[in-house]
Amino acid sequence: MSAVILVHSFWQICQINTINGQHHVDCCNAFGGQWSGDLFITFMSLVLWITKTWKDVNELNAFVDDNYGIVHEGEGHNYFGYSEPRWMPVEQFWTLLLWDKLSIPHKAKKQSHGQGIIILGIEVNANKLTLTLTPDRITALIVQLNCFIIPADGKASRFCLHEWNQLAGWINWSLNVFPLLWPCLSNVYSKIAGLIRPNRQVCVNVTTPNDLAWAQQHLL
Predict the structure, then answer these.
(1) Do residues 80 and 108 lie in contact, with contact meaning Cβ atoms separated by under 8 Å?
(2) What is the pLDDT of residue 1?
C-alpha cells in the first residue's frame, strides 16, 4: 500500500524541503512527525473495519500502512488488477479489491504470500513461528552502530540531532526481533532529551559507544 494522507494547509508550511537551493512544500503526512504514525494507523483501522464488514475478512492486521494476515493454504482467487493475472490468498484478494474501490494505490511487487515472507525487513516464518532480521538488514544496522562506536578521526564524534533520532529509530525497529537490546537506548535518549533543532550537533559521550557496542555483539 502507498497511501497518501493530506495534512492541513497550516501544517504544510511547517514541511518545507530544500533541494538544490529551492524550497518545496510537502502537502502530505510525512513519516517522522510525532502524529504521522497515529494518522496512518487511524486511517488503516477504518479500512480494516470496512474489509471485515464488507467480506468478513477477520484475520487481517495492520502495521501503519502495511497489511498482513493468515489464511489456510490453497484458498484464493486470481486478481486481475495488474498487468497480468496473479493468484492470491482469498483475504489478500478481497483486500486489494476494496483498495481499488476506495482508490487506494498499491504495487504488484509489494504483494507477497507464502509460508515465509519479509515484512518491513523482518523475515516471518509461519511454520516455525519465528521472527528474524534478514542478513542484509543486520549488516546495515551494524554499520549504523559503528558510526557512533568508532570515531572517524580519533576525536570525539559529533552528530546532528536528526542523526541521533535516526539511530534511535533503527534500534527501536530492531526491538521487534531483539527486545533485550532495549537498555542500549537509555543513554541515547538521555543525550537528546529536550533537544528540538534537527541540525544541532550533539557529542558522543563515553557511555553511549559502550552501550551500542554491547548491542552490536548480540547482533553478530
Answers:
(1) no
(2) 46
